Amino acid sequence: MFKKIVAGLCASALVMMSAVPAFAEEEKEPITMSVFWWGSQLRNERTQQVLDMYAEEHPYITFDGQFSDDYWTRMATLAAGHTLPDVVQMVYAYLEQYAEENTLVDLTPYIEDGTIDVTNIADSVIETGKVGDGIYAICNGINASALFYNKTLLDENGIEIHDYMTVDEFKEICREVYEKTGYKTSLSYGAYTSETYMQYLLRAEGKHLYGDGKLGVDSAEDLLPFFQLYEDGLNEGWHLDPSLYVERTRGQVQEDPMIYGSSPENMSWCGFYASNQLVAMQAAAPEGMDIALTTFPNDNNEAAAWLNPSQFFCVSADGENPDEAAALIDWLTNSVDCNNVLLGERGVPISSVVAEAIAENQTADDQEVVTYINEVVTPSCSTIDPPSPSNGSEVVALLDSLTEKLMYGELSAQEAAEQFFEQANAILAE
Fold first, then answer.
1. Residue 147 and residue 271 in contact, taking contact as beta carbons nearer than 8 Å
2. How far apart are CA 54 and CA 48, in angstroms?
3. Which neighbouring-strand residues pair with 271?
4. Which end of the chain has a smaller Cβ tally under 10 Å, C or N?
């Protein structure tokens, strides 16, 4: 079903929002609607542009667009104070937590009455926003995890990359790149990138990170390959020095060691990302650098990989304008004009009609992402895991902390695996 979306199958007509009579717009009381998101500067600019477009069509609405680098910390604070913005961006990993804490509005009534039109969206995609019996989020793009790499650098040094690399093949390339160029490797260090890569490695072995009130693995030995990769990279010299991450805002494109640095010693030839980030990364890259993408290194890609709802839009239970917020989400999802500005930056549009309509206006990088989703990931992947448990964020923080200690030499890979197994199970049992 995902492939139907990203391939953009033909539909008989474009679905357009019904025009609101001018007199009806004039009669409505002015409102201010807040929208909260994270991402690159490119996303920030495009999102603000489409909000301005919507405000022009709905002059009674004024938008308070809020963009944050420290998104989840702010989200937690706002949720605790019951002051969440009207519309918030969400990820699959946090969806269950926020829905169960009654901070989000069930969108089922808006879907049933047509306020949010899901006619051209696969049921499997709608299901990704489901928690319990309700639909609490509308996915705004399909993506997949991807290893980005400096193709220009590798081509110049005769180093070839192929899809579906094993972990051992990846390590050999890390060594070869370091020996030939001095460029190092940046592994999946930080928040959900780390969690995602650990899931990849486990799924390749037929295991899962989360079980029912505990980890989905039987022992620390199942977790060791993740930590061992970092230890090998540091011992052999091909992994970046951990002090570099202190100087950077992790997750910010402009500060990523793939594109920012003074020498090969503090730069990386690759990075772990979501596929939809390619456009922003390429836009921020130095002139003459071509960034390409391939699959995360793992030993069984069909078992490891999955198609992912890149992000969602949700209506906050704290907001004063839930009906208008739902209508905005419909427009963001189904308006061709809107998506000709967004151009799939959050992922391949979930509406097959929209995906087809905007294809001719997408850049070569946009189209490369679509090709990657359709031709590389879709033929070799399996079903996404259920959302992380409500206390999964604590597990992620623990993973980040232990990885950092390992990189600074405070823990061995074996010790990090054992501590993660013990402490993560304790967190999940609470």
1. yes
2. 10
3. 148
4. C
Residues 108 and 135 sit within 8 Å (Cβ to Cβ): yes
Packing angle, helices 392-407 and 92-100, rounded to 10: 140
Determine the 3-state secondary structure of 64 from DSSP. Answer: strand
* CA angle at 429 for the pair 427 and 430, rounded to the nearest 5°: 70
How far is the C-alpha of 410 from the C-alpha of 414, rounded, in Å? 12
Closest listed residue to residue 329, CA positions, set 338, 341, 318 = 338
Q: What is the dihedral of CA 399, 70, 349, 198, to 10 degrees?
A: -10
Tokens of 319: 């907001």
**Hunting for tokens 């906050």 — which residue is that?**
316
| DSSP conformation class of 268 | B
**pLDDT band at residue 310 under the 50/70/90 scheme:** confident
Per residue in 147-202, pLDDT (tens digit) is 999 999 999 999 999 999 999 999 999 999 999 999 999 998 765 688 999 999 99
| Residue found under tokens 């890390």 | 174
CB contact at 8 A, 393 and 218: no
- CA–CA distance, 189 with 375 (Å, rounded to integer): 28
d(CA 55, CA 62): 6
**pLDDT tens-digit profile of 374-389?**
889 989 999 889 888 8
pLDDT-based confidence at residue 16 (cuts at 50, 70, 90): very low
Q: What is the 3-state secondary structure (H, E, C) of 294-356?
A: ECCCCCCHHHHCCCEECCEEEEECCCCCHHHHHHHHHHHHHCHHHHHHHCCCCCECCCHHHHH
42 closest CA partner among 206, 242, 283: 283
Pair 285, 254: CB distance under 8 Å: no
pTM of the model: 0.77
What pairs with residue 268 in β-bridges? Answer: 184
Cross-strand pairs, 35: 65, 87
Instruction: Read off the tokens for 386.
Output: 């259920």
Which two structure tokens, joined as six digits, stand for 70? 């420290």
Element holding 180 (H helix, E strand): helix 167-181
3-class secondary structure, 63: strand
Contact between residue 412 and residue 118 where contact means Cβ atoms under 8 Å apart: no
Question: Is 129:139 a contact under the CB 8 Å cutoff?
Answer: yes
User: Interior CA angle at 27 toward 55 and 51, to 5°?
Assistant: 10
Amino acid making up residue 200: Y
pLDDT of residue 8: 40
Calpha distance 277→258 (Å, rounded): 13
Q: How far apart are CA 53 and CA 186, in angstroms?
A: 39
